[in-house]
Protein 1
Amino acid sequence: MNTSLLIKNGVVVNADKKRRADVYIDEGRIKEIKKSITRPAGRTIDASGCFLFPGGIDPHVHMELPVRGGHSSDTFSTGSRAALFGGTTTIIDFANQERGGTLSHALGEWMSRANGNSFCDFAFHVSITDYNDRTRREIRECVERHGVSSFKIFTAYEALRIGDADILAIMEDVAKLHAIVLAHAENGDMIERVTAKHRSHGKHEVKYHPEAHPVEAEIEATTRLVDMALHTGCALYVVHITSGEALRRLAGARKAHARRKRLPSVFAETCPQYLLLDRALYEVPGFEGAKYVCSPPLRGAADRAALWRGIEDGRIDTLATDHCPFTMKQKEWGLGDYARIPNGVPGVEHRMQLLFSEGVAKKRIKPERFVELTSTAAARVFGLYPKKGAIMPGSDGDIVIFDPEAVDRISARSHHMNCDYSVYEDLRVRGRCRTVILRGTVAVDGGALELPEGFGRYIPRVILV
Ligand SMILES: [Zn+2]
């Protein structure tokens, strides 16, 4: 059977340039890109009027995340299927070490959830919550044996946070291996102090959530982490930046790294919810605001404008989602106490459509920059490039045929995520993923899924020195 695929008449967009070309894919990989390809193929798709983007990479998702009382509502099966509908062909989730547990156990757990269930390709960062001699040996094993090139640390949350001494030691270990540290940057003590005050004053409503996660908590932790990264020579990626000031400090640190001629640098991620949604949503009467409870929280207009500038000028490297959905029933665990509302919003399905609509269609960014933010930068930072993140000969045949003129309305009634609401309900968006191709196989076409469950593969990553 001829399994080759020929895509004709599209505009191929990479992070550095775009051009009209045909693309020939065989055995899962891109074989040829040329102005006109006429050879016969198993399947030919006409992409006239469409962009061809490299398959999206969402480097920050949480499928089936165990939380007190349950799991985030998307499994690897439902979440990865939603990802594909939205043009994301690779997700990177987090395998979280338990206190007293090992990294390999965590990795095994997450691998067993994803393997055979994921529709799209996947990889894992490993989160370190308990640093000791064994953990230290295991960091090396993760890199050398399991293809894990990124380790996450938290500066907040009782069950997850570790102290500065451990963070410094991890950064030293990770720097020696030329891997990278990801960080959730919020000052945990500030959060706990405000939350305790709220409790003692009977302030339990959702509207107090953003107050408990003050912007200073994010700025302080970001500043501390970038300085520790500079000190240890470790590459650092700060997840979900929400504030203009945190971004400014991160960008300053990047210059300091460059002045020291250090290749490892600091990288910034933000998410669509921080670019598009306002903290006023927490003030909606009743429990409605619980839908938007995530940490760090949504901020105001000035921060959104600053983040958009970072999207435009290159100071933000990647757009991820921090996809971590909970149904309204699960959110209700926090009825009467906002601090018990499970944190997270659904988002994996609409990342590319939202950035195209708000970014490219509104002329804030060019299609090339869109590709960098949704795919190429994540591939480079996390060791997937050039297998993923580019449309070029030798790369995996992960391609999104994107119709820039289509118009959609986002709604929980039509989305594929396992969540009974959307934080973008009724938002009109321009542009739609018409066909999504994973390793040369059509995954989604015209709104229909064509892949079997479990098609997604674990993608071991390499260290890029
Ligand atoms: Zn997260």
Protein 2
Amino acid sequence: MAHHVTQARRQLNFSIEYVLDEEEIGAIADVVETQVMPPRSYLLMHPEARLTDADRALVKRWWMGELPGAASE
Ligand code: HEM
């Protein structure tokens, strides 16, 4: 699991300096909508990481560019 977390951090790094390109935003949209992420195996140990429908709706507003500091800015 520690290896998974390292890999995940490499895949998804929300550091302030980092600007996501369209492909990365698309990948996030994809895994959030299909509920592939967070991984099931991770949720067994960290149930609080489960995204609710409201969480997914909020993330969707982010990638649609509807929030301040939007993904596509
Ligand atoms: C809502 C939270 C999360 C989001 C939005 C997210 C997003 C992503 C994205 C966009 C990718 C790349 C997928 C691709 O190749 O297109 C990825 C890969 C990955 N994520 Fe996550 N992730 C989340 C949570 C987590 C957590 C909590 C773990 C904990 C282990 C994790 C483990 C991984 C791993 C191991 C990969 C690389 C392996 C693979 O592509 O299947 N992710 N994630």
